[in-house]
Amino acid sequence: MPVPILKQGSILIATVQAALSDSDTEKLREDLMERVSRFRAQGIVVDVTAIDVMDSFAARSLRTIAHMTRLRGAETVIVGLSPEVAFAMVQLGLTFDDMNTALDLEEGLALLNREGRLGKSTIGRDGGV
Amino acid sequence: MPVPILKQGSILIATVQAALSDSDTEKLREDLMERVSRFRAQGIVVDVTAIDVMDSFAARSLRTIAHMTRLRGAETVIVGLSPEVAFAMVQLGLTFDDMNTALDLEEGLALLNREGRLGKSTIGRDGGV
């Protein structure tokens, strides 16, 4: 199932709806890269709230997406890791040390705003700065 | 083939035209350092749009250039990494974590402007601030 990607101002929001197959992950990566160019996106939020299993391939793929988009000038935040998934990831040694993570979509947008990479068209937690 | 370097206000723009040989890379580094001094440049944009292969030597050289110029007071932004090059770099572990990257020349100039290091002579995405 492909991952829908919304554009909101200079941010792309990818909402993962179910466990990612390998081909879904590649498609997501290609789609995000293409849209970063087309929309000149400055930030990407990948919402994984719906995921209840994060294997090492999916985790590595998310990391690859985050690093690739950063090389192209867009910061990525992973949001919505559930406590169970977070626990499993830590047990597996997948700590996402080099990535941005946030509690949920709202916090993810606020994080991108705080980093100051985004214009005024985005929703900010502190009142739309 | 040497890399042409343009001066625009307090920014130097180096446009890499083809894959960098080792000697080209050294020449670029020397040229940039010399011009940072001569023109008192505050920012440098290295445009690698034309590059379709980035090996680890070229990546390390770009990082060296960025760190050297920062020590001399000029911020460097790498722009124009293609999705393919970005993917290959991430696979090789070359994530440029400690460097500024942007989508293209325009975004690179905007990034330098946002960092507040530059005067008003530069092109800004948000209207030349």
> What's the CATH topology label of chain A?
Transcription Regulator spoIIAA
Q: Quaternary state, please?
A: homodimer
How would the global form of chain A be characterised?
globular
Give the total of domains of chain A. Answer: 1
Helix and strand composition category of chain A = alpha/beta
Q: Strand-and-helix sequence of chain A, N→C?
A: EEHEHEHEH
The whole-angstrom Rg of chain A is: 14 Å
Count helical runs of chain A: 4
- Please provide the count of β strands of chain A: 5
Name given to the CATH homologous superfamily of chain A: STAS domain
- Proportion in helices of chain A: 40-55%
Summarize the largest interface: chains and residue counts: A-B, 19 and 20 residues
Index terms:
homodimer, 129 residues, alpha/beta, Transcription Regulator spoIIAA, five-stranded mixed β-sheet, 4 helices, 42% helix, 17% strand, globular, disordered C terminus
